[in-house]
Amino acid sequence: MPTKLESPVKTQMAVGLVSGLLNGECRKSTRGILARRRRVFVQTEAGCVLGMELERGDNANTVKRKLQLALNVPTDQSSLTFGDRILNNDLSAISNHSPLLLARNVMHRSSSTPCLSPTGKNLQQWDWSGPLEILGCSKYFASIDELIKDIVVAIKKGIEPIPVHSGLGGAYYFRNIRGESVAIVKPTDEEPYAPNNPKGFVGTSLGQPGLKHSVRVGETGFREVAAYLLDLNHYANVPPTVLVKVTHSIFNVNYGVNGDKIQQKKKVSKIASLQQFIPHDFDAGDYGNSRFPVAGVHRIGILDIRIFNTDRHAGNILVKMPDGEFGQVELIPIDHGLCLPEHLEDPYFEWIHWPQASVPFSEDELEYIKNLDPIHDSEMLKMELPMIREACLRVLILSTIFLQEAAAFGLCLAEIGEMMSREFGSKEEKPSELEVVCLETRRMIEDLNMSNFVAEEDNDAFLSDIECDKAGLDHPPHIPSFLFKQFSYPFGSESANSHYLLPKLDESLVEGNVDLGTRAVTAERIINQPNWYKPVSKLSMSLKKLNVDETGQLQRMSALPGIRRSANDQLPTSTSFVKLADMCEEEWALFLEKFRELLYPAFSKRRSTTIGQRRRLGTSCTF
User: Number of C-alpha atoms within 13 angstroms, CB side, residue 361?
Assistant: First the structure.
């Protein structure tokens, strides 16, 4: 029997926020009654956002009931998610000013079902916050407080934002009281493929795979913020960027699944990235790279490698010309929404063929790279952007370690970028040199796990035979323990930390759509195949010998943990040779250890290849 909903009066009191709570007041809200509450922003798959306060006793069900009242949308077949986590009763892990997503359960989602969309007439009465709020109260955002205040004043004075007509997603220049563009705002529900995209690129709901399969729709905003936070000491010149909840009538809202536009504009609240607008003269595509400073190119390249940027093209490097005759050109990197993918992708580095990228790193640059701490950076992002997925953080750690080891070996920026980039041949996408090392590392770990597993199983079987002999019984057929676990826990592992030491048996197991008898036949068929487990090959294996079909099989076999049903499993199969999120903590630590061991042979091979291909430029070259 459904639970009776709370009264509208009581719910409205719980959801509403004291009028005028802005970012400057956010740091003062730790006193009095607000100190016992947390402010969160819940976003539906259709992009509608509602700010509400969490009471001490609130859980996911009470939040969903409040949303049902405020938005007039069904929530019984939906889940409240926070990054990787599906929230149930306990909301203690949710920090103040966190964005949550109300998403329909997978079994209730189809392409013909419309997204959750509010039909309430007076949505704004439920959310009494100001026109612009920063999500989070971090020391890293202090420099942008004055900018936010200037924008709020301009909005109240009627200074309208200006839509940006270029690009695939919705973006808007917000202005100050003088009419000057001071920030660019990108709503998460107007990204390419998002439900409210204003340029016709619609087709999926928030939280689903987007333009890049490793970056979900609605999650480019916090990646923009992550790039700014990771640009330590403003080293690469990334403009200040924050995640905000912003309310305005300029934003686009589509009606229905076809993306039809609503003619009458109304004020709507959205979660968006807000980046300070930097006046500039050109972008790198309009201006030749011959005058770009080596240090500027190196700094952007170092950042791109750390965050595994999959979209560094010339259009997102701004160029500021010097004021005087002897000044230096300034480069400003922007648009980092496609960085930190959930698995290794094919990155795109515009600078990879620029001559500056072939100049060796300076001593100062080598010192900066050496002092990077990927574990600390990962923990910092968890604190500042708790919605970020674990898979993204592991890509950050792996990329930073790769950069550090490659720079210490003596590789230049171009060589490092080439090792991360994939090759295309015979219409097939081949794994990069970095991905080959990762595949070798995974198979090395599987070899170790297989040895331990076989020893344990043989020991168990030996003891079982002795016991049978003593009892005068026939020896029972030996059933591997991983099959027993598969039958006992068809939709998950035995506990949160348990995992399989053998590969996944078949793709059908992931879908959970076969019965146990079929699984037993599948397991027997695979085990009886010759060479069903591949030993570790030598690192000298060339990319030409590793085709896409083979690496696809390796990827399926390298999935060590048990089958889990979580938000992390919703990404469809794509050209993904290496995923990192399916390892438990112990396996991840072992992976990093073995990964470092295999890097130096790969670096030596790259160096010999580079010497054979072309002569690299030296530090005597000037730009």
Answer: 26
For residues 136-156, one letter each, b for 16 or more C-beta atoms within 10 angstroms of the residue's C-beta and e for the rest, the string is bbbeebeebbebbebbbebbe
User: Does the predicted TM-score (pTM) go above 0.85?
Assistant: no
Assign residue 161 a region (left: φ > 0; alpha: ψ between -120 and 50; beta: otherwise): beta
Q: Are strands 132-134 and 330-333 parallel, antiparallel or unpaired?
A: unpaired
Structure confidence at residue 59 (pLDDT):
82
In this structure, what DSSP letter does residue 270 have?
E
To the nearest 5 percent, what fractions of the chain are helix, strand and coil?
A: 40, 15, 45
Task: Answer whether 411's CB lies under 8 Å from 405's CB.
Answer: no
Is-contact 356 623, C-beta < 8 A? yes
* CA nearest to 116, candidates 54, 64, 61: 64
CB distance 265 to 46 below 8 Å: no
Backbone angles phi, psi at 149, to 5 degrees: -65, -40
What DSSP character marks residue 202? B
Residue range 583-609: average pLDDT? Answer: 93
Strands (E), 427-524: 428-430
Residue 319, CB half-sphere, CA atoms under 13 Å: how many?
Answer: 19
Inter-CA distances, 213 with 69, 220, 334, 461, Å: 34, 12, 21, 44
DSSP notation for 302-365: HHHHHTT-S-B-GGGEEEE--SSTT---EEEE---TT-S-SS-----BGGGGSGGGGSPPPHHH
* CB contact at 8 A, 318 and 287: no
Write out pLDDT tens, residues 331-359: 999 999 999 999 999 999 999 999 999 99
The rounded distance, in Å, linking the Cα atoms of 225 and 243 is 7
Tokens of 99: 């964005």
pLDDT tens digits, 8-51: 333 333 333 333 333 444 444 433 434 456 878 888 777 778 88
Structure tokens that stand for 159 in this block: 């200074």
